[in-house]
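Continuing the batch. This is chain 6 of the set; chains 1 through 5 are on the previous pages. Same settings as before, nothing changed between runs. Recording input and output for traceability.
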Amino acid sequence: MENAYNIKKDAVQVEAVSELGLNPFPWYEEMRKNDPIHFNEKLNAWELFRYNDILEVVKHPEIYSSRRSRSGDPAMAIQSGGNLLMTDPPRHRQLRSLVTQAFTPRTIAQMSGRIIEIVDSLLQKGRETGHMDLIADLAYPLPVIVISEMLGIPPEERDSFKAWSDLIVSPSYADLERGRKELRAYFQNVLQQRKQHLQDDLVSGLLQANVDGEPLQETEILDFCELLLVAGNETTTNLIGNAGLCFDEYPEAAREIREDISLLPSAIEEVLRFRSPVQRFGRTVVVDTELDGRQLKVGQRVFCWIGAANRDPAQFPDPGSFNIRRTPNRHLAFGQGIHFCLGAPLARLETKLAFERLFHTFKDIQFQRDVPLEPISSFFGYGVEHLLVQVQNA
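Output for chain 6:
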């Protein structure tokens, strides 16, 4: 594992999670203790590191809006049409209801058989060669295939999906805009095709949906597609990879899971807490307010460091330990309140089935520790680019 993060005087001026490397946790601890509600002058933003402070933000969307304003003027804030992450009530509630049916527990459970088929096909390389990259060979393609099939996207276009998704979460604004432009141009063409020939997929369902008797606007559908693509694969890719990191760092936990596979769901929850796939999210202050004696002004941004909250000792006893039996485990990895991740059940299921099949297929999995770990380049995400392993067939 990477050495402890070097806490520098200007470490608070973080613009992308990837700047912190794979061990930001000492910095989180330092900030929680000494400056838990920090004002970042460079960004004109507040940064929160404590669990309860972040809960306060998510519980009050009327004060901390999901809209984004690059100008600092809330009147200019972006109320993105179909992107649930950047939409406030009541529109958020209306739009979320449209896609909820695609992510009900029953619907997700019915996908288990297909997910197992996909995982088994992806593990074939390991069976044949004795080695694989858990990211490139499993964690990346699995959620991309699943969400592509839900959207009705043909297999030959999945690589483009992944490329656009990586650009959209990039800390580079130019890359982000390029990814969004190319993705939206692609889906505009898909929409035209579906208007001519509806299919049994989410895109066709959105075309036929309506809110209060009115059909969705094209921009709203495009926003939905963008969100489903990014949220549908980036978070799950990181979750699977981060689980691999945890099981490598704590082999005793992996051994216990092999002996009792019923521990896997609880272990995944601990992975979500211990190495959260998303380390922070942002809000915009739309009403002057006070938080623990600090005066937050209209137009200022608020960055909530989930990764820090999930290791807050006020909420989690012995937060620096990886405990696969931890209960309760009220982590914030999937958010809270109205913006709780809609795809959480799917991410959990994909990760659970991925490791069930890994442990069933290979009696031994050895991580190649001589290969340096490279953090993904992301504004908010936490994960590794590659995770090389040697495997032995069961």
